[in-house]
Amino acid sequence: MLVKKLFTLVFIRKEDQILLGFKKRGFGMNKWNGFGGKVEPNETILEAAARELKEECCLTVKPGDLKNIAHLEFTFEGEPTLMDVRVFSTSIFEGTPKETEEMRPKWFRHEDVPFEDMWLDDKLWFPYMLQGKKFFGHFHYEGFDKILNYKIEELDSMKAFYENRKTK
Ligand SMILES: Nc1[nH]c(=O)nc2c1ncn2[C@H]1C[C@H](O)[C@@H](COP(=O)(O)OP(=O)(O)OP(=O)(O)O)O1
Known about the structure:
Elements: E1 3-14, E2 17-23, E3 32-33, H1 45-57, E4 67-76, E5 81-90, E6 103-109, H2 122-130, E7 134-142, E8 146-155, H3 158-166
Residues 7-9, 26-28, 33, 36-38, 74, 83, 85, 119, 121-122 line the site of the ligand Nc1[nH]c(=O)nc2c1ncn2[C@H]1C[C@H](O)[C@@H](COP(=O)(O)OP(=O)(O)OP(=O)(O)O)O1.
């Protein structure tokens, strides 16, 4: 049996640019990533997403302005954990990105996204996100540098996806 752990992942968009953060510590250290983390027991997923964004790069978003664009799952060979990652995006935000203890933020033009310094799965699903598509992805890793198998499905609606999962 896999133990599910819930995470958020937020991408801020501005014209043809996307904001990424260079993770300075912890899980995914030394990789460019979206902003996010674990959902605490006293908060909604959207509140967690807005809180982590603020903590990691000092930008403010209203939870209601975050659009759920994807659902990602990660499993690791020989490990009992399933990372359940809710991905959000918005171009409505306040403030200027600032470096924190955890992240160094930087805007990237779409064609300059540094996939060589990101999680291996990112280059498989970023094209969906950058084209404004909604999607589900599952990636099964061996260690952190090898994907043993994966699946990506484009979705019509996130709401329908979650309703469908509940009934299964
Ligand atoms: N393969 C992957 N590709 C990707 O793009 N993002 C991933 C990923 N695997 C995990 N993530 C994201 C999800 C989440 O935003 C982040 C991991 O969260 P963290 O461990 O940083 O959580 P916390 O900030 O709550 O942790 P603490 O530093 O322990 O408080 O990495």
